[in-house]
Amino acid sequence: MTVDEAGRALADPTAYADDRRLHEALALLRREDPVHRVEREGYNPFWAVTRHADIMEVERAHTRFLNAPRPVLVTAELDAMNAERAAQGIALRTLIHMDDPDHRVIRAIGADWFRPKAMRALEPRVRELAKRYVDRMAELGGACDFVQDVAVHFPLYVILSLLGLPESDFDRMLKLTQEMFGGDDTELRRGTSPEERLAVLMDFFAYFQELTAARRAHPTDDLASAIANARVDGEPLNDLDIASYYVIIATAGHDTTSSTISGGLRALVEHPDQLDRLRADPSLMPPAVDEMIRWVTPVKEFMRTAVEDCEVGGRRIRAGEALLLSYPSGNRDEEVFEDPFRFDVGRDPNRHLAFGFGVHYCLGAALARIEVRAFFEELLPRLESIELGGEPEGIATTFVGGLKHLPVRYTLKG
């Protein structure tokens, strides 16, 4: 593999479904050209930033490197369509699309719902749902597709419970989320055209318009009502910003966690010494959770755009050029992590970048940790044996994803 081929892999959704290929490419880039210019047919050029220190530098300098106008990697055709819709004022504008001061103000609307006090209040519900889904594994009789039968449902129920949505709508939210993040995956996507991808967002928008109207007419004690009735400078949010807020909470709030839980279970199955170590010493669960998050790194990248000429990792970046922050690469950086390709449930320190850094640090990081911990604290005491029941399959994506199938065979107590 050449350096140019390694760079182009970052704009190839199938590379993210093949851990060996992806990490071979990323290791080559870190070693040979850690800030590498990528030119791939169908995509606008970008700089791939692959070392932990350089990613941190860009994340810290949030006024020099902006999320807008290109917050995630998409095709040149979608970039153009998104720019046109933004100019018309009809593009979804989530927290990942925003920069300060808008980002700071809009983020604050939901921030209290993810603070420690709120997380403590939510934890009993999280543990109740964790037990429900470990019980579900028992009901399945010792074999299941862990992703589809368990992992995608548990975090979805948690986040939609926080929003206050009825369980009758959960399957609809799951399908829309899989279509949005699986837009490059032949099994999960709705269609292949940019118009079909945008139709998924419009379906979200239509659903949340109805929800907003209901919560404004009859406010309730949930996050959906807090968003619907939020005011900025005395004025309510417009429908597009409200829908955008719902979309980022309802989708990123569960898909990333389900990827961590399924990828974490696979890691424990494939590293039985670490599974035995964790079962023998439950006090290792907090570092084990962060190691699962580092190992899986569900968010593969965010993009930033330079507002002025500058230098990153010894490379000259021109104003207006885009940079891709490769989180899987930063989380395997040999300069930061001792033996980075070893799965170690006791890893300490663990300076992973899976939640980002700085002003854009993941709003739901604490909730994600609670969910992963609650699930494995429920599962491991009941687990007598577990092994793969077939070949795991990853999602083709360049943004958010993990496993889409994880067949396992197991025996559980109770």
TrEMBL record:
SUPFAM superfamilies tied to this protein: Cytochrome P450 (SSF48264)
Recorded GO MF terms: cholest-4-en-3-one 26-monooxygenase activity; heme binding; iron ion binding; steroid hydroxylase activity
Matches recorded under CDD domains: CYP142-like (cd11033)
Gene3D superfamilies tied to this protein: Cytochrome P450
Keyword Manganese: no
Alphabetical keyword list: Heme, Iron, Metal-binding, Monooxygenase, Oxidoreductase
InterPro entries registered for this protein in UniProt: Cyt_P450, Cyt_P450_B, Cyt_P450_CS, Cyt_P450_sf
GO BP terms in the entry: cholesterol catabolic process
Source taxon at top rank: Bacteria
UniProt similarity note: Belongs to the cytochrome P450 family.
Name this polypeptide is given: Cytochrome P450
